[in-house]
Specification:
- The protein is α/β, with parallel strands linked by helices.
- Helices cover 39% and strands 20% of the residues.
- The chain is elongated, with a radius of gyration of 55 Å.
- The protein starts with 12 loop residues before the first helix and ends with a helix.
């Protein structure tokens, strides 16, 4: 039988293209390099150095720190950079200080009289509102305590922009007459105010003489002991900065010793109760010598005593001649 597809008697395609080239030869295989398993001396030293804790700490901390410090120093070595940084910081500070929560708007003063309150406001001289960062509380406290009538002062900034000033005012204890005028002093001898500038709530003891401000406690003790004298008492005079004279009405005086002045005054008052010696013509009652009481009479009493003695002498003379 004949095939449905006719056959060609032609050679294969490969036969027409020519002979097939042989496959390429494989590349030459490189021979393996035989390396010494033992590290070199430098490799060994590097490995040992890496195992050193100090070296690792220097690389991890020291080198970055040095680079940071060096870079910062290099940056700030330029004056322009420094000025820019400082200006920026100043601007930030001004913005913070200008915030409302840091401003002081009200000044309050407690514990002071109206007159002292006005003096404190004048001494502080604050132009409110003001930033709390601009207030030196210690310097302001010293200003307030520099006022004669202020014993202690405490300044604090409270919430709401309130500057609180708490004052302990000096309390007058004595009226002291000096060469410059009449002033008020407290129990510690500190000047409080001039007498003409202060309205007293109650009468105070009157003292005079140099050094009276250094013995205020003794003057107050004498005033308490002299209470039985009542309206006769005028005050106390410090004599020679050593002792006291008790000044009474009609320029009468009780001269007290340097030591034991209160006890000597008690003895004088006991004598007054027994003899009413101060109701007689006595100008000075001298107790400076504790062993002897000396009495100085008034000029009128001395003149009367002289008259009586002359009369007695004349009487005796007349009786003898008769």
């Amino acid at each position: 039988m004949r095939p449905l597809i006719a056959r060609r008697d032609t050679p294969p395609l490969t036969a027409r293209r020519g002979p097939v080239a042989p496959p390429p030869a494989p590349p030459p295989v490189a021979e393996p390099v035989h390396r010494d398993p033992a590290p070199s001396i430098w490799s060994y030293r590097v490995q040992r150095l890496w195992l050193t804790p100090l070296f690792r700490r220097v690389l991890r901390v020291g080198v970055p720190s040095f680079a940071l410090v060096f870079g910062t120093g290099l940056y700030f070595s330029d004056e322009g950079h420094r000025t820019a940084i400082l200006d920026g910081l100043q601007e930030i500070r001004r913005e913070i200080e200008a915030r409302p929560e840091f401003r002081v708007n009200v000044l309050g003063i407690d514990g002071a009289s109206d007159r002292l309150t006005a003096e404190i406001r004048g001494a502080l001289a604050l132009d409110l509102p003001v930033s709390s960062f601009d207030l030196d509380l210690e310097a302001l406290r010293q200003r307030v305590e520099a006022l004669p009538a202020v014993a202690r002062a405490d300044l604090r900034i409270q919430s709401g922009g309130y500057l609180a000033v708490r004052v302990t005012e000096r309390v007058p204890a004595l009226i002291w007459q000096t060469r410059e005028g009449i002033v008020l002093i407290d129990r510690e001898g500190h000047f409080v105010d001039a007498l003409g500038d202060r309205q007293l709530e109650a009468p105070l003891p009157m003292v005079a003489g140099e050094g009276a401000d250094r013995v205020v406690d003794e003057a107050l003790a004498l005033h308490a002991a002299a209470a039985p004298l009542g309206d006769r008492l005028r005050g106390f005079v410090r004599m020679g900065e050593r002792r006291w004279d008790v000044v009474l009405t009609d320029d009468r005086r009780i001269l007290l010793p340097e030591r034991g002045a209160v006890q000597a005054l008690d003895r004088a008052l006991a004598l007054q109760d027994a003899t009413d010696i101060l109701g007689r013509d006595v100008l000075r009652l001298d107790l400076r010598n504790p062993d002897r009481l000396t009495v100085q009479l008034t000029p009128a009493a001395i003149e009367e005593l002289r008259r009586l003695r002359a009369l007695e002498r004349d009487t005796l003379t007349g009786g003898t001649s008769g």
